[in-house]
Amino acid sequence: MTDQNDLFGAPPEKRPRGVQPAPPLAEDLALATRLSPHIHLGTSTWSYPGWQGLVWAGKHSEATLSKTGLPAYAAHPLLRAVGIDRGFYRPLAASEFQRHAEQVPRGFRFTVKAPSLVTDALLRSEGGRGQQPNPLFLDPMAALQDFIAPAYEGLGQSIGALVLQISPLPGPRLARMNEQFDLLHALLLALPKPPAGVLAVEVRDVAWLTPDLVALLRDTGARYCLGLHPKLPPLSEQLPLLRALWPGPLVARWNLNRLHGAFGYEAAEKKYGEFSEMLDPDPETRAELARVIRGTAGEGQDVFVTISNKAEGSAPLSVRALAQAVVQG
């Protein structure tokens, strides 16, 4: 009897459905084997269509990638972490965190920003203009209810760093920094330790970068999040603070290339387009960060680093270049 496949040909192969990872490069696979398991590098989020060929095998909308792209992202050999920044704009439920955690392999870690409800001293309009004082600024109960408890429950062992990024303070608060240190100290003392990873503090005002910050972080066991942003001094000038807190894990967020200035997010976004090319490489920052990563991981401490597209033009390419700098050093 004649096989139907002989008459009509073999049935066509089914194309995989959904977001598929780009085929890994041999150099990335080799590089990943040389990175310490303590080192978790990633991007600030994962929903960029312009990463086709770098992270995604096909073309997808931002909405599709946001909802279903995380497993493909986590399949990239160098992407061992990712940021969840959208929680800054509205608190996320434990179920949302859990859904993310269920989509990644063991050992993958999340860096999560706390809601602005807790970390911004001002209530702002949709355009970002401060309108009135925020009564819940650095409030322990609000932080526990809207950030800490849901993240601990939903992410569990997938926590890398939970970051309290304190927005720029209004003038009256800057004039009373002792009060701000007391508020932050009381908040951190009230929060339970995470089941994995660390609690970290990132700031946007130089006025925070004093021995008082070192003292309260030491007292509470929280970490300083190295903020690579033009509103703060260069990495080299923040290193004394890291040294004062040694030993401990490293948390770093490379947010924006210094050439764009303190308010240059929109300019960077326009210039970098689809975020598929490294248009403004910053080898000096990368080399210095790689040195800190090597030293930290070499002493058996965990490293959690996330990079924005606005750092050099394409976050996945920045991760690759940073990984190369780490192992070549």
From TrEMBL:
Coiled coil: none
Location of the region described as Disordered in the Swiss-Prot/TrEMBL record: 1-23
Top-rank taxon, per record: Bacteria
Xref: Pfam families: DUF72
InterPro entries hit by this protein: DUF72, UPF0759_sf
Entry protein name: DUF72 domain-containing protein
